[in-house]
Amino acid sequence: MKTQKIPVIGLLLATYACQPPKPTTSTVELPGERISTYVEESPDPIYAEHVRSTEFQSPEDEMADFILPPGFEISLFASEPDISKPINMAFDERGRLWVSQSSEYPIKAGEGEGTDRISILEDSDGDGKADNITHFANDLNIPIGLLPIKGGAVAFSIPNVYRFYDTDGDDKADHREVLLGPFETKDTHGMVNNLFRGLDGWIHASHGFSNISTVAGSDGDSVRMVSGNTFRFKPDGSRVEKTTDGRINPFGSDLDELGYHYSADCHTLPIYQLIRDGNYTQWGKKEPNLGFAPTMMDYGLNSTALSGLVYYTDNQFPEAYQHSFYSGDVVTCRISRSTISFNGSTPKATRQADFLVSKDPWFRPVDIKIGPDGAMYVADFYNSIIGHYEVPLDHPERDRNSGRIWKITYKGQEKEVIDWSQASMARLIEALKDRVLHTRMVATDELVDRYGKEALPAIQKFVNHRKTPSRQLVQGIWALHRLGELEREHLDKALQHPDLLVRIHAHRILGDRREFDPQHFEWTQKGLEDDQAHIRRVAAENLIVHHDPSLIRPLMTTLLESSAEDSHLRYALKHALFRHAQQAEIIPFMAGETWTDQESDTLALIFSDVQSAVAGEYLLRYLHDQKPPEKRVLPYLTAIAGNLPASRMEMVVQLAQRIDSEGIFDYQKAKALNQGLTLQGINWPEPVKNWNLTLSDNILHDLTDKSNNWSESEIDQLNFATEISRQLRIKSHIPYLQSLVDKNYLDENVRIAAARALMETDPNSQASFLQNKLINIDNNLGFRQKIATALNIDQSKKTRELLAEGMDNAPQELQETIAALLANNREGKSELIAIIRAGKAPARILKQRNVEENFLVNASEAQLEAFELLTENLLPISEERQQLIAERVENFEQGNGQVLSGRTLYEQHCSMCHRIEEGGAMIGPQLDGIGNWGLSALATKVLDPNRNISENFRTYTLKLKNGQTRSGLFRREEGQVIVMADQSGQEFSVSKNDIAEQTASTITLMPDYFSTTLNQEQFNDLMNYLLSLR
């Protein structure tokens, strides 16, 4: 539908079109396309070893193994015993290098038992090597992120971010106080890392892998961070704010001249240009309908251990190596280089030849920093082992003492290091013009932190001068903003400055204000209409945080006029509209306006991610009046059902039934409504229940008797129908469900879903039927194991007895599955002891990790005594399993002809949880480049998956209020449900209100039966396929 309100916008556009265009210059060169000189090479197999087989080398010998481009040279800045294991580095205003070190890593010390330290390294005689080393603090617990500030430092040490004070100037911390914390530290991968001072004066940081932390500033406002996140906080700890959400394990940050923040993520991509408040992909996170925040590169580095990131803005390196990104890779032992070009405001990285390669596989570049001398400093966590869950955390070959810091320079380009702590105000103001960004940043910090408001007259003088160089002007207005003294007229002039650099930073300062008034919104609207994409981008990001109804239409107009190629600008605009729609006082205005068809489509997409009854009503009207793209229909139905009350569901069902779309079936529409109601946490109203019942009746009637060759759509329909049967406990469906279970040529997931539905519907009459499937040796082993799990839904005496009977003469893997199920409750534990004593199962089964873990929880004294007696003379599982691994590796045969067979095995057993390139699921880690692990590590992970478990892949057992238990991998919270994944890779949801108890397990979701289900030939096939993935 066309509208009558467009002329208003047209008039505004016409008004601005009448104004003369602004002259645009820039002191910052925006790089164009560069031709990549990178050539893909096969990495040396030595880099695939999780425990390096080469010998330890002295720093001198290691230095001989570095390969650098012509003209560059590397020297040793510091090493053991002066330092230990460096993790993060930072320079202070005197040019000294501060470094956090940990011999504890990756196993944290007990409370008050830490021996790690932060040290200050100074090259006092200018010979390129640290000769004055002071240990600032030496009782820490895996310190990572650190930042020297006036009178001490801010640094992380488990479990807090501390402010360390040096009150007497001896470069040693006298006392400390908690600024933020405690942070969760169950996983020690990244925790709080890579602190840096932003242009805004705040301290920016990254939050690492797996941990879930909720921390607050002294103002009481808190942020919650799940796994990878970035955040900022004031140096005094008064406030903390999340800056982005998502990614896996960010570990490395830097800024460019335009003020963009770049960040490395260890597990996904080495470079992201972050969008303010951006929502990035993450394991277990459901992608919003708007999509995740975009990336800036279409290549990876074949590694999941990318750490350290710098954007080189100095001039010590030759011009060809300036304005480049440098990324550390602790697996392939190198530093990569990428260059950047822009399409509008969207950056695109291009891979160049690796900058540094080490032939010593112990080289681990965990952090990179550019020093005040323009040299590159590399923290080398020198070690034969770097991985967490690839190698036991307490492995004896983890080096605890050796560490090096390397300095890379270009010959003949030495620069003087200036002690800015002694510089006069006039010298600092002059330094604000410097072409090197780091110099300008340090000078600004010194003016603000050391001189404070005493510097105001001098800063205001050059800010007011019309011939002030742009770089100096940018730093000056940032300094005034940080001091709270930036006058409106200063900002107004900067926003209209002819230099793009100044205008960009003026808009960044505008967006950093806590409160917006009408004038600020007017300036921001002008920014949205600027002819420069970077200005539009910053203005859009400002409106992610600051909201006003008057900016809705300008945001919409800018979005619809923006280039499809400028992904970062488009995301920022959509995200700003989304944040506006989340405001209860603004969304009615958005929903009540009259929009064009294209604008309505955009608004519907945005509203589909908003939890609001207003959004639900808008989408209901939209689906009634419009015909959206087919891919949007089901998400919109889910959003409607998730936002509207039960009283509206009759109308919703009627609407869904009327939607006529060739590619969408009625059962899919019903399933979409079911999902929305589940997220909202309300029971199905009668109209929904009746529609589901009718649909499931029809599907089971039409498809159950089909002889063979079900299509994917028909399989999906059967899964839907069995789930409805389970939820509604429809006894009339029992014959259909039994028939599905009986069909051994039917998709196994459907058969098991039918079995679960039978046990939920009428366990007393159906348990014996399912036990027949359990003991039938004609059924495959995996199916019988899943039938056992289905039987265990009803934990009655009868079911326990049927499970116990199923152990008699059963294969070992099936016995282990049943034993783990019986061990879940006291009555089952006694049953299991009786079975073993009767000789129907070996005592060895009690030492299987999942059986032992279940058995020992809440066991009686008599049961514990029986357990000890039955297992006292058994060889530990780990030794037995290690013997098997060694045997399989020794008998491994490599052959290209086996890759295809191995791929078939992978698709059968692994693809439901793992992804390679674009194929498979994202339940477990991505396996791109997994062949770089090497044979030994892959064999260990497949044959003994519970040996080393990352916290992010630990399973949980939920005890439900109805007596049932569910186990799986935690994925995410959605509304009123917890979403988990089972061993088949299928997600399932449990209402939070139904959970009585949640317990973490010591086992992972990955099945622990490949040691017996794969023979040597199959093992060879699978290994050949996985090793081919490099």
From TrEMBL:
Domain Cytochrome c: 897-1030
SUPFAM superfamilies, per the entry: ARM repeat (SSF48371), Cytochrome c (SSF46626), Soluble quinoprotein glucose dehydrogenase (SSF50952)
Pfam families in UniProt: Cytochrom_C, DUF7133
Iron in keyword set: yes
Keywords: Heme, Iron, Metal-binding
Segments crossing the lipid bilayer: none
MF terms (GO), sorted A to Z: electron transfer activity; heme binding; metal ion binding
Gene3D superfamilies: Cytochrome c-like domain, Leucine-rich Repeat Variant, TolB, C-terminal domain
NCBIfam families membership: CxxCH_TIGR02603, Piru_Ver_Nterm
Full protein name: Putative membrane-bound dehydrogenase domain-containing protein
Species, as recorded: Cyclobacterium lianum
